[in-house]
Amino acid sequence: MSVDVAAIRRQFPILNRPINGKPLHYLDNGASAQVPQAVLDAVHAYETTSRANVLRGVHALAEAATEAYENARAEVAQFLGVPAEEVMFTGGCTAAINLVAHSYGSLLRPGDEIVLSELEHHSNIVPWYQLAQRAGLRLRPLPVTDEGRIDVAGLPQVVTERTRLISLAHVSNVTGAVLDVAAVVAAARAVGARVMLDGAQRAPHGPLDLPGLGIDFYAFAGHKAYGPNGIGVLWARKELLEAMPPFMGGGSMIGNVTFEAITWAPPPRRFEAGTPPIGPAIGLGAACRWMMEQDWTALGGHEMALTQRLMDGLAETSSARLIGPAGLQGRLPVISFVLDDIHPHDVAQILDSRGVAVRAGHHCAQPLMERFDISGTTRACIAPYNDTGDIDALIDGVRETVRRFA
Amino acid sequence: MNDALYHDRIVALAKSRTGAGRLPAPTASARRDNPLCGDRVTMDVRLEEGRIAEIAHEVRGCALCQAAAVALRSRAQGRPADDVPVLRQEIEDVLKGTAAGEGNFAAFTPVRAYRSRHDCVLLPFEALQAALNNS
């Protein structure tokens, strides 16, 4: 099925902006995706017609704001395939993982173990390292294959009777490899451990069925999924949330407060202390609605066709080496590569002069850089609004970079 | 714009790798990392009676960082160790656009427009100063 890319592009106003006198070829979607007009309209409507604080207010604007905020929660829940009361808005994906590390983590005991992997983003390493330091836990990293996948064959070596949680990237933010979730869930269930997925790089590629995955926690960021900045989502099973203490304290998350004793509100409010990021949450709800309105069978085919075109172009550049799966199976359109003797920042800078926006560096994944013995990569991440012109501009820029530094 | 950044002189400095490597018997050494981009510079220095007799640098970084290490070596060798802060101030002035820069430092004038790349140029200076502080 063909995709009318021009029609999609028209929904993203920023794509009309020239860069250095050239058309914008935005391929830094893995860092932040662009927002469609529908999201801008939803945020604008809140700010101009119903801006007020949520909950408790009885005036018309407060009612409208609360309704819009809770509707956004329902949109996110539908996108994830879960009940709305299991969805919490956070400040971002990092904040969501930190919430679990502090709250669920407080239930763990010295000697308990948490399984991570060598390819995790620092946001799925540092909170667990901090927890391990605080609580006397042990972190057990899963190895990564030469193809840039989490090596699930290593599960028997690192998952033990002391494992309480396995927290992994659903999709690598460097290699694009998709996790074999079923293998991880099976290993976790065998020892009674919980499974958390960092979905930051998966959520931008269409609706999910979290119950079908058999996991316990899921986190993703709004700004990578065509939503605003400053908003993220944590999903967790209700029975887990009800057993978890609050992370942050403040307004809205309490049942009753006295100086002698405080009771907590039920989830999700227990985990949303203070005034939430209302406008960004409404924008993320609109982004999830926008994603649910798309034909992801067609868009997925479109994204992977562009991925193949990019990998073919890199294959014709003798000094280029892919860091990640060489085929299209079990991967999403997150494509990292290195060029012999040319630093990724120099590649990205020259690409910028041609209007091509990519990311360069260690991608907050230093253990993975050590694994491949590289200082960084150049990374392109493809979104539905990308087209063949974007890929060809990237490949042309790579060839020019090689010529410049040859 | 970036054609101006990666002009021939910068590329030539970076590719020359003049002074790249390690000294067999340095008076002092230091390594500095840029945690934002992962660049890493190791500087070895050999001092003779307060003067910088020899510098060697090992750079795992971009062309700007490599070029800056070569340029710094070209300007610092033979000078008193106490002059390194003066050289640091000069390169900062070049990056601010308030000085033209002498010798190889002039090559970095176009970097002024790229604030995110200033640290790439400054990292070898920080490593050299740290090495001298260790001596």
Structure description:
The complex is a heterodimer of chains A (406) and B (135). In chain A, helix 7 links the parallel strand 5 and strand 6. Chain A has a 7-stranded mixed beta sheet, sandwiched between helices. A 4-stranded antiparallel beta sheet of chain A has the order 11-12-15-14, covered by helices on one side. A two-stranded parallel sheet of chain A has the order 1-13. In chain A, 51% of the residues are buried. By secondary structure, chain A is of the alpha/beta class. The radius of gyration of chain A is 22 Å and the shape is globular. Helices cover 38% and strands 16% of the residues of chain A. Chain A has 2 domains: 137 residues, Aspartate Aminotransferase, domain 1 (Alpha-Beta Complex); 253 residues, Aspartate Aminotransferase, domain 2. The mean pLDDT of chain A is 97. Chain B is α+β, with helices and mostly antiparallel strands. Chain B has a single domain, classed as Alpha-Beta Complex (Sufe protein. Chain: A). Chain B contains 5 helices and 3 strands. Chain B has a 3-stranded antiparallel beta sheet, covered by helices on one side. Chain B is globular, with a radius of gyration of 14 Å. In chain B, 40% of the residues are buried. Chains A and B meet through helix 12 of A and helix 1 and helix 3 of B.
